[in-house]
Amino acid sequence: MKLYGSLNSPFVRMSMVTAMECGLGLKVQLVNTSVNPTEANAALEKLSPIAKIPVLETDHGQVIYDSRVIMEFFCHTSGNKNLLPDEPIKHFRVLTLLAMAQGLGDTTVGLRYETFTRPKEALWPEFVVRQRLRIGAVMSELEAKWMPHLSDLTLGSIGIAAVLGYIELRQLAPDWKTKFPHLAHWQEQFSKRESMAHTAPTP
Ligand SMILES: N[C@@H](CCC(=O)N[C@@H](CS)C(=O)NCC(=O)O)C(=O)O
User: Fold this and answer.
1) Residue 23: CB within 6 Å of ligand 1?
2) Stated pTM of the model
């Protein structure tokens, strides 16, 4: 299988971590693919009209996206029932945690584009403030209500760990570890997993 993307993307990283946790690490070849929000990547557009990473191409030539669907595909194809349990309460709790990770990922990637990629004179300060508030709100919710669930290895906890890693990499919330020490401690411990260490992004 080919996974198109870069480990600097939190969505690609959460997909690759899931592959490894499902025992598929050796079967998934990462095809380094870089993206830029203002430039089309023609090769990627041939695979997906959305042209965002990650995109997975199976050995049968089926194209699968986006990251959430790829993660579910890895669980399904490996028969892993722990990362996304069937039992309804757990199932939808994991998917809700994953939705929070995806939302936090969209927010942080958007913030990076706004503050780093966009020309300084075109910066939209109100947008930046709103995204920072959203990041704080998610971290606050995670620390207040989700710590017991984060201790389970699931698609949700993998997603959150990947996005917190991205926030660190791009320094999008410099004071988050002081404000949310329990979450920071969890992230530090989770990052010791082989799947996380193996997929650590490089600045
Ligand atoms: N919903 C998508 C989001 C993926 C995404 O935003 N990827 C970013 C990189 S982190 C991207 O490809 N950006 C290129 C662009 O915006 O054109 C997923 O979960 O896979």
Assistant:
1) no
2) 0.98
